[in-house]
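Incident log entry.

Two folding requests arrived from the same account within the same minute. Monitoring flagged them as a possible duplicate submission, but the sequences differ. Recording both here for audit purposes.

Request one:
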Amino acid sequence: MDSPILLLENTDQATKQMLENVRKRKEKFDKSKRLHTMVIWATLTTASIYFGYLYFTIAKLYSYSFAAMFSAFVNNSNNLYFLVVTVGLYGFMNVLKQKMDKKEKEYHELRCEIVDRSKDLWKKEQEWKNRHVVFEMMKNNYDINLYHEKK
């Protein structure tokens, strides 16, 4: 368990474990989001380079005839490699998007569960009055909003 969560007062062990789980899920979601963003940029960069390559090696030289452009495109094996890499990156980007959405959904479900069950998690009056300390710590340290369900 992370040290700020362990040091919480007026919070029982089960609640600390729930806070730790939501922290871990947020961390996994953030990591997935960063990877997805990097693959988006790699896909855009590769596609831009590929289209520039096509323009300078085929479109500019053989613009007088579509048949000549198509023939030049098919005869150059580099086009196949560029196309496979670009389409592969695009597919990988979509797979990462689905995984990121799944991790985001899991994170928000657990976060909303904590918000919904806050009356059960902080039953005693002293705990209820000091729950804002827990909420502020989670917001400041981990950027997890437990005040309300909306993102």
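Request two (distinct sequence, not a duplicate):
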Amino acid sequence: MQKMSGQISICCLDLEGVLVPEIWISVAEKTRIKELRLTTRDVPDYHVLMRRRISVLREHRIKLAVIQKVITGMKPLPGASAFLNKLRSLRQVIVLSDTYYEFAMPLMKKLGWPSLFCNRLETDREGYLARYHLRQENGKEKAVKALKRIGFRVQAAGDSYNDIEMLKAADEGILFRPPVRIVSEFPQFSVTRTYKELLKKLV
């Protein structure tokens, strides 16, 4: 493992928008529920967004099993698997996501089972989403800070509002295909548009 400035580098990547399509947008397209297209690119407050999603799913009688069926049919973004395989051959990599294990496992299989830190869902007896359980508040940021405390130099890449604190906490934060407004609001971060550019930044 290559060392930089006396430290070993580790890369922390967001999942949705960086390695796989936005799960909720895919669900919105399959169910034709327009409101489910909202993501952390649109609503910075994650709790507001998740409560809204749970309410909309209940209103439209969409159960967890329906969402999981949609996710099973999803694929990584074009070029993502090759990028991740190359990066993992050069750096240790952790995927830090605000998604849920109940959603992510089919996609993790298609990406070759990278390490994933995310959250858990709870359903009611009928199979509807009832609650979401965060591993911890601000989990991405805290994971980066913890890695730094145990001696790693951390590089992080993400695309949305919920990645910003992770990018700020890292030794190097990189935006990958972000919306224009995020680039404008956070000019301190490098911006990459292709996996080739991102790989070059990370290694």
